[in-house]
Amino acid sequence: GRADRAALGALAAQRAGGPRAAAPGDRSSAGAQPPQPPRV
Fold first, then answer.
1. Are the CB atoms for 33 and 7 separated by under 8 Å?
2. Cα separation of 38 and 40, whole Å?
3. Domain-by-domain residue ranges, the chain?
4. Under 8 Å between Cβ of 33 and 8
5. pLDDT, tens digit, for every residue of 1-40?
6. Rounded to whole angstroms, how far apart are CA atoms 26 and 8?
7. Distance between CA 25 and CA 40 in Å, rounded?
8. Alpha helix locations (H) across 1-40?
9. Contact 6/28 with Cβ under 8 angstroms?
10. CB 38 within 8 A of CB 11
11. CA separation (Å) from 24 to 2, 13, 37?
12. Cβ-count burial of 29 within 10 angstroms (0-12 exposed, 13-18 middle, 19+ buried)?
């Protein structure tokens, strides 16, 4: 759902280290949930 999509987006941004990681929406979503280890 929405949470899953946000989590995947945050993970992708974190792995890529792109500007999306600094987006306010991603930040709020990531802050609400505990950090998850990158999936390989």
1. yes
2. 6
3. 2-30
4. no
5. 788 888 777 777 666 665 554 555 555 554 555 666 777 7
6. 10
7. 25
8. 2-16, 24-32
9. no
10. yes
11. 16, 13, 21
12. middle
